[in-house]
Structures are given as C-alpha cells and as structure tokens.
Give the backbone structure.
Amino acid sequence: MVDRDAVVRLLRRATFGPTVAEVESAGRAGLAATLDRLLSPVGTDPGAAATPPPELGADAYAGITRESGREQRQQAQKQRAEQVRGLVDWWLDRMVAAEHQLTEKLVFFWHGHWATSVRKVRSAQLMLGQLDTFRRYGRGPFEALVRAMVRDPALILWLDGQKNTRTAPNENLARELMELFTLGIGHFTEADVKAGARALTGWQVDRRTGEARFVRRRHDPAGKTILGQTAAFDADSYARLLAARPEAGAFVSARLWARFAGADAPPPEALAGGTTVEVLRALFTAPEFGQARGGLVKQPVEWAVGAMRQLGIRPGKLPDQQRRELANRLAGMDQVPLRPPSVGGWPAGPAWLTTSSLQARMRLAALLAGAAAPQVTRRLAGTARDDRPEALARLLVVDRWTPRTRAALAPLADDPRRLLVAGLVSPEYTVS
C-alpha cells in the first residue's frame, strides 16, 4: 500500500514544488521507486535540454584598459548588466523546466553553500562556470567538489584568492573554506588559516579566458602544518585534507539536513560520509525525516519556482516587462539568484517571515496569479464554488487548510485569481 503522505513529503522536499501530475505519478510508482528516480534519474532531462545556457559572449570588460574612455566603460557596464540579467532569467526558467528536479535543487543548494555574488565577481560567464561545477561535482564525493572549488575562478575572485601570493598571503579564501564551506566554526585555529592561505597561493584568474591558472612563482612551496599534519600542501592536497576530515562530513550533512529536512533535531549520525547522493538517500529514508512535518520555511526562490511549476508558468516565456518584474519582486524578498548578501549565504527559517517579506510575497503572488496558465484558472473556475479551496489545495499540493485559512479563502472563491494569491501566501504553502 502506497503511503501517499510520505510520497508527497518527499516530493515537496526533493523538488522545488511538485505538480499534480508528478504527485499522481509518484503515487502510482510508490515511495521507493520515486526516491530512486529522484536520486538517480535515467537519461537526459528533456526540460533542461530545452533550456540550454544562454550564449553570453565575451566578458564585456575583457577589452577595457586604463586607456578606455568613459563612454566605452559605460557601454561595457551596461552589456555586463544585460549578461547577468540574462543568466538569472535563464536559471529561473531552468529551475522550472527541469524534470530532474533534485539535480536542479542541489545546484541551488550548493550555490547557497558556496555563496558567491556576481556583484563582486562581475562576470556572468564566471558565475555560469561555477553553476556548471555544481552540476558536474555536486552529486558525487565531497572531495571532488572541494578540489574543483578551490580553483573556481568566481570563488577565487569573490574571496580575493588572486591577491594571495607567497610574499603577501591573503587569508580570506582559506578562512571561509574552513569556517563556512567544509569544517564549521571551532574546528580549526588561526595558525591553520595562515597555513591554509599559503597552500592556496599562486592561483590567478584570467578574465579574458575565464580560467584560473596556477603561477608557480607566486606559490609558497614550503612545508605547512594544517590541522596537525605537516606537508608541502598546495590547493589540491589542502582540499583533500579538509574533505577527509570527519568534521567536514558532519558539517555538510547538517547543512543538507537543514535544507531538505528542516527538522529542529540534529541530523542522524548515519548521514555523514559518502557521496552527496548517498547522504541524501540516508536523509530521505531516515525515520527522523518521516517525522519531520512542517517547519521548513521555503526560501523565496524555492517558493516562486515551485509556484510557477504548479501554475504552468515558464518565466523564460513571460513578456520582458513581467520577467523584469519577477526579478524585482524577488529582490524585494531579498533573494535573487547569483546575488547572496554575503559569503555566509542567505538566511533561513523564520528570517523569511517578516512583515515586509509578506508584503513582497503578496506582490509576487499577484504577478504569478495573473500569469498562471489559462487552464489553471479555468480549472478553479469550473469547480463548484464551495469546493474551490479544496481544489486549490490539490493544485498547490497542500495537505489541508487549517480552519483559519479555510475561513480566509472561502470569501475569495468567486475570484480564482484572488483565491490563488491567498493560497500562495498562506502559512500552509509558505511553510512546507
């Protein structure tokens, strides 16, 4: 017998937002088969294939020199801003269109974990390259991802790695690598940071090619003692050292647990270790995950993407004005892809439930309700008036409305658009 509640819970956490058709299909397949399909999708992703990355062209600033005039610089700045907007628009569309939803959600998870902002990197091309790195390595062993990220051009620029030389070590990347990306606070010393910075010396970013290259004369080849081990550490061996630490497995597993389970209780010890997909399988099958009901506040991007999937909206096909408004409304909710507020990433939980965020959420909900596929509003309008709140719950994959929410929805049943807005901002939809 299929446990529908368990299937729906899995889909809510492992996707941006399941559609009615996905729920019905998963219900027929069962929990185990659905989990296998999410973790190990077979074949190419038709939705992702239909939304290939944009042709960004060359970095707009690559040709700017000290001799470049003001007009040339302004034109390059405008072109760069257009490239970034195009990349954000594409990624939102990709999140909606992707059928391998867990893969896409993992890319967004890693983007928040290795929080890198285009505002400082100033290159859509390098940010796209970082997203490609998350797609390539984000499902496998953590070591491979860490090794790729210590030489990721966007991360190097974001944390001043290009300024890190044997004669003037810069500690930013080494510090955040241990504190925010691998080990967590309290598992390293200041001496480890200084030695780690020396291990990372020598990497430079060529903006013309968009590649990171190793300049041997800038690297410190001497021995270094990091976390109690002494060797002539470089970026690769330093990354391997960090990824192999048990603290790293526990730290990353806790991050995955917080994002995909949302439970207040600490993650089960069995989660630590293995590939990311293996950790997720342990996470989704843990008894504690089955007991984690509610309490996971959707991040604004997750909330908006899930709503667009359920309402049949493709952001890439919206008119230009509505696409700009979508990005502006997300900015009003303080979360735009490629623009985390700091290296610490975005906040989580109740931080998204402020009065101002609710007002911004309502404005974006109104935009989405207006852009909903015609068949969605027709389906609601074609349902008996008193049954429309329940029809809305099925559409948004909400288990049930509380009496309070049901009482708020009932007077709006005559207007499907207003009913949609109210459903999208309801506690039952905002908190999974």
Notes: The beta strands are 203-206, 211-214, 224-226, 229-231. The first strand starts at residue 203 and ends at 206. The CA atoms of residues 64 and 72 lie 8 Å apart. The longest helix spans residues 70-97.
